[in-house]
Amino acid sequence: MGKKLDLSKLTDEEAKHVWEVVQRDFDLRRKEEERLEELKGKIKKESSKRELLSDTAHLNETHCAHCLQPYRLLINSRKQCLDCGLFTCKSCSRVHPEEQGWLCDPCRLARVVKIGSLEWYHEHVRARFKRFGSAKVIRSLYGRLQGGGGPEPR
Amino acid sequence: MTDGDYDYLIKLLALGDSGVGKTTFLYRYTDNKFNPKFITTVGIDFREKRVVYNTQGQNESSGKAFKVHLQLWDTAGQERLSFQGQLQANAYCENPDIVLIGNKADLLDQREVNERQARDLADKYSIPYFETSAATGQNVEKAVETLLDLIMKRMEQCIEKTQVPDAV
Ligand SMILES: Nc1nc2c(ncn2[C@@H]2O[C@H](COP(=O)(O)OP(=O)(O)OP(=O)(O)O)[C@@H](O)[C@H]2O)c(=O)[nH]1
Ligand SMILES: [Mg+2]
Ligand SMILES: [Zn+2]
Ligand SMILES: [Zn+2]
Q1: B 71-130 residues with CB below 8 A of A?
Q2: Does the pLDDT at position B90 exceed 80?
Q3: Is the CB of B43 under 6 A from ligand 1?
Q4: B116 vs B24: CA distance, rounded Å
Q5: How far apart are CA A88 and CA A53, in angstroms?
Q6: pLDDT tens for residues A66-85?
Q7: DSSP secondary structure letters along A68-92
Q8: The pLDDT value given to residue A96
């Protein structure tokens, strides 16, 4: 890896600045996590609505699974979602350029959340940060600035 | 300060030697102001900006507008204060999207890198190159928007192409 991190070279003033930046970053990350939790909640709600729908025999043949509007043939043709297999109307899904199919908005959102929350990627980054990244910065600053009262690195 | 009403949080990182204008460039981008004073950055810092990104519609679907929250990381170029080594070592992805920026384009008579060399370097790595000025604002938005466009296109592809990988 690159240059070695040596916080002892910083003056107290400088160390304080870095500490504050790290704090602001934590706030932003926390908000992002809250946002993603909320999105996950929405997705859950949507999927229970869908379960209901698939229990109601044949309703999906005539009505969009998302907005529950009836299809008027030709004007608003129905599209089958690649992920969930339900039919939605055109305005509730997006074309998928490569696989020649459609993704309904909730499934698209689910994919976005998965990528956005980057559960896979967070884990990966977290593992790396544990070793040398911001967690290390915090730990060494924490020692220096007694009574800083900041969040413990996770 | 930041409300959670956005669709994506995107992190950008400014890297380069001390004094090239990273902090001033970002300040121009977020606040549309120019700071002629040189206050060297200590370690790290970041600024934030909310922008709207429009996707182009493909075939039958129409484009969509996404609210993007940008976290613009500023790093210290000075060796003594630098975290750049760490940041690079801990870069979020193996091959990030990059734009190359030659700043202070307004100071014509003090040019240090000729345009040909800069372009050759950018071409070698197939990355976009911009000559910007934080003083006049020339190309500042364009450079950031181009980078955002690269990132968003990649993300769209990622959403559309994959079942997201379980592990990296
Ligand atoms: N004329 C002109 N001056 C600029 C421009 N960009 C930055 N400067 C000036 O160059 C000096 C250094 O700019 P900074 O933004 O502080 O440089 P930096 O890259 O952040 O430096 P470090 O924080 O030490 O890494 C400041 O006095 C700026 O006002 C520009 O486009 N044109
Ligand atoms: Mg700076
Ligand atoms: Zn619908
Ligand atoms: Zn679906």
Answers
A1: 71, 79-86, 88-90, 92-93
A2: no
A3: no
A4: 25
A5: 12
A6: 787 787 765 567 788 888 88
A7: -PBPPTTTT-EEEBTTT--EEEGGG
A8: 66
